[in-house]
Write a structure and sequence with these properties.
Order of helices and strands: EEEHHEHEHEHEHEHEHEHHHHE
Number of strands: 11
Helix content: 40-55%
Number of helices: 12
Largest sheet: 8 strands, parallel
Strand content: 5-15%
Length: 331
């Protein structure tokens, strides 16, 4: 069975076909969050630290750390701030350091800027997940050497120089190309986590079916783990959390092994824990039973994060304790 190992300083998370579904918290991302972007521009990391704690309390096993879309207010004062290569690398280092100071879960280093990716890798303790590489030739040549240098797993997004294809056959071919190119660098398939790209169901009625079919093919033909931006499926729809909560267990049943998502949403987390139980990835329903009182606590006035933290007091769902990481090869 394919296993992708991600580590913090003291904890190990395994993404795999026979493992509990890996929840990757998406909240540390200023894109589309004007308040957070303004705080980061002012050197204020309070929301970042709060979001890190809250996501872990709610069940995130890995935290995505994204350093994009900041410093727009400073562009007029200093033209350097219009250059992401100037802005993102130091910010990524600070974000990783701040997050690691308040929680001890593995990280997913997320940026389109290679310098930011490397700064995040250098600052991260353990073995983070790198997000991401695509099938674009320039991106392959920039990111795959970093993956090899730091000996880390990487998210492979199924688009290339032609953009995002609505044809699932094309998206599968791009994923296959990335896996093959990674092998040329000595990167094994178990360190590739493919994002087959989830289209909005409101714009494409077959979007869900496409993803489920792609996930099965990626598992059976390429032997890779998979992830996605789970909320993309409900983009533009009312009651998005209801759609997401239906999509996630269906994706899990098809073989998807992780998702970048908002773990603070109670309905989605309940759906994932139920799916883990039904897929026999929760021995004797221990985690389901442990979190069964969360809904009652929320109805009684507690926040989902607070109730989840109390339920998790005996140990984190899906996580594995491990010795100190540090298996990365550094140049």
């Amino acid at each position: 069975m394919t296993r992708t190992v991600i580590e913090s300083k003291t904890k190990t998370v395994v993404i795999g076909f026979d493992e509990p579904f890996c929840v990757i918290g998406e909240r540390i991302n200023p894109t589309g969050r004007k308040k957070l972007a303004a705080e980061l521009e002012a050197g204020n990391f309070e929301t970042v630290e709060k979001d890190a704690r809250e996501q872990v309390a709610c069940g995130a096993m890995v935290l995505d750390v994204n350093s994009g879309a900041v410093f727009t207010n400073k562009m007029a004062e200093d033209p350097r701030y219009a250059d992401n290569n100037f802005v993102e690398p130091p910010l990524m280092k600070e974000l990783v350091t701040r997050v690691q100071s308040v929680v001890d879960v593995p990280l997913c280093i997320d940026s389109s800027v290679p310098g930011a990716l490397e700064n995040g890798l250098a600052a991260a303790e353990g073995r983070p997940l790198l997000n991401s590489v695509t099938g674009e030739e320039e991106r392959l040549e920039l990111v795959l050497p970093l993956v090899k240098k730091y000996n880390v797993p990487v998210v492979a997004i199924s688009n290339d120089d032609t953009g995002i294809s609505p044809d699932p056959e094309v998206r599968f071919a791009v994923a296959k190309k990335i896996v093959e190119r990674a092998a040329d660098f000595g990167i094994p398939a178990h360190d590739i986590v493919v994002d087959p790209l989830v289209m909005p169901i409101g714009a494409m009625g077959t979007a869900g079916q496409q993803v489920f079919t792609l996930v099965r093919r990626l598992r059976d033909e390429l032997g890779v783990n998979t992830t996605c931006g789970a909320s993309n499926i409900s983009f533009g729809l009312p009651n998005r959390h209801g759609v997401n909560a239906a999509f996630l267990p269906m994706a899990i049943a098809a073989g998807m092994t992780s998702a970048i998502m908002n773990p603070v949403r109670k309905v989605e987390m309940e759906a994932i824990r139920a799916a883990n139980f039904l897929m026999n990835h929760d021995a004797n329903g221990a985690e389901w039973i442990r979190f069964a009182r969360v809904a009652e606590a929320v109805e009684g006035g507690k926040s989902f994060a607070e109730a989840s933290a109390e339920a998790a007091a005996g140990g984190r769902a899906g996580g594995r304790s491990g010795g100190r990481a540090g298996r990365r090869a550094r140049a």
